[in-house]
Each structure stands twice: as structure tokens, then as C-alpha cells.
Amino acid sequence: MEIDLYKAIPIGVSLIAIFISIATIFITRQNLKRQLRLAKLEEILEILLFLESYYRGLFLLFKDIEQKVELLENRKESPKYLNDSSTYKKSFTKLFDYETLINKISRLNVLAKAYLPNKKNLKNKALTIADVYFAMYTYVNFDGNLRTKSAYNIIPKPTEMKALISQLSDQIIFEMKLGYKNTGDREYYKYYKSQFQKDLSTAISLERKKLEREKSTSGNSGFMR
What we know:
The protein is mainly alpha-helical. It contains seven helices and no strands. The longest helix has 72 residues, at 2-73.
């Protein structure tokens, strides 16, 4: 029995070591998958914020071209301000060109399909924002000649798109399980008006104290020498 016991101990230790190795590999793989997904969710957030930053300009151009097309169809002359919008369009499309749009929208489509669940329409929201944005930009870029608008007749106002992207961002952050909700523009401004100056003063005061401590420490070190 003693011989069998002595044989069993190394076998048992080996089995435990194998089990620990397998568990470690499994946990490592899970962590890597989680880190990869987090990186992709962060990229989705970046793309959404990028698109939101240009949406107001795109919306205004879209409405101008929509009006111009309507006037042309009715054989009416466009007012001067609509004719002047072509200059703004050139500036806008130079700043945010068609190739950039394709890259951003394509990437958002791929990431949303691969990494977003569809609970609370999370995936659908991201994909719809991408499609609407693409339809609007294409309509603007080709001066209303491409009929992308007909498929997407619900065009959000800038405030509506901002609210939708903010809601979607909050949902994605919650999905990441390691972040916090966004704060709205009003909250930023409220902080700016009521607390920002105080925080600046506090930060400056702390920095001065830190520098004084460093000077004092370096002075004492020199004296000790």
C-alpha cells in the first residue's frame, strides 16, 4: 500500500499541475477575448463621436440641397443663400472627405455586427446611424442626384442625433462593464460655471506645494552632503 501511495502522490501532483495549466490557459484566453472586445467597443465609441462632431454641418448641407432639388423640380430659382451653400459644401467635404466617410461607416458596420449584442436594439441603432449618415452624405456629395434619400426619409435633427448617440454611447459603456455614463453638455457647462475655477485654483495650489516640497527636499539633500 505504501508503494502504491508513493506512486500516487506524484501522479496526483502532476494531475493538479495539468489542471492548473489548463485553467490558466482558459482564463488567459477569456481575458484576451475580453480585452479585444473592449478595444473594439472603444473604437465604436470613437467612430460615433467622430460622426456626431460633423453631423450638424452635414444636416445643414442636406437640408440646403434638399431645398435646392425641390426648387429645381418645381422650376423655381434658388435664393442666393442656397447658391452660396456650395462654397460651404466644398469646405465641408474637404475637411471630411468621401473616403474618410466610407472608412468610418464600413468600420462601424463591421464592429457593430461583430461585437455589439442586439439587446435594447444596440446593434440596430449603430447600424442605422451608419446607414442614415451614409445616405445623407452621399445625397450631399452628389448634389441630390443619387436617390439615397428616398430609402431614409427619417432624418434626425442635430439635437436628436446627439441624444441618440449619447444614449448609444452610454449603453456601450455599460456593455464594457468598466466605465461610467457620459455627462451632458449642460452638466459640463454647469461645472464650468460653478466649479471649474475652484478646481483650477486647487490644482495650482497643490502644484505649488508639491514644488515647494521638492525644493525643500533637494535643499536638505544638498545640506546633508
